[in-house]
Amino acid sequence: MKLRYFIFLVASAILTATPLSAQQLPEVDERMLREMCLRGECRFDVVTRVRLADGQTQEERIPQYRPAILPNSLSIMLGEELQAVADFDNNVFRRWRAPERRESSRNAVLDFKLAQTGDGSIALEVRNNGREPIKLNLFIRAPGAMAGEYTSSCPVIAGGSVFEYWSRPVAELIVGEAVLVTDAGALQCN
Q1: First vs last Cα of the chain: how many Å apart?
Q2: Number of domains the chain is built from
Q3: What torsion, rounded to 10 degrees, do the Cα atoms 170, 172, 177, 183 define?
C-alpha cells in the first residue's frame, strides 16, 4: 500500500469512532480499521465528483476507505444513500448498525441521502422511521480535506424527514452519535 493512501486511511480513522462531545469528530482505532479492510469490509475505489461554483468538477479518488457503518459513526459520501439503525439503551445512544431484514418497529431506522442539487449546493435528506425525535451530530468533509468539521443540524421528527443544505463543496458526511430529544426539543436546531 502506498504511503499516501495509508496516511489517508489513518486520517480517516481519526475521523470516525469514539464519540466524546457533540462537536468532537468521532475516531476509529487504526488497528481495527486495518483489520476491517483486510476482511473486505472497507469501501474500495471510492470516487466523488463535486460541481464547483465556477462550473468545474472536482474529483476525489480514494482506493480504500472506511466502511459506511461503524458502531460509533456513519460515513455517507456525496451521491450515496445509506440506511442505519441507531441503537439506544435507556435513552442513551449505544451504537450504529445495519438494519436487519425484519427490523423491530421500536428501533430507530434512519435513511440518509447526500446529493448535489441543480444549483450546486449539497443537500442531505434524513428520514426517521422511529417513534421519537432524534438529533444527530453531523460533520462535513470538503473534497481533499483530511478531517471533517462540525456543522449545525435540526432534529429529525419521529416518522418525518429533515433537510440540511450547504452552499460549499462537501465530499462526505460523517454522523457521530444520535441523541433522543423530547417533542419540545424536536424543533430546536443548532
Answers
A1: 41
A2: 1
A3: 50
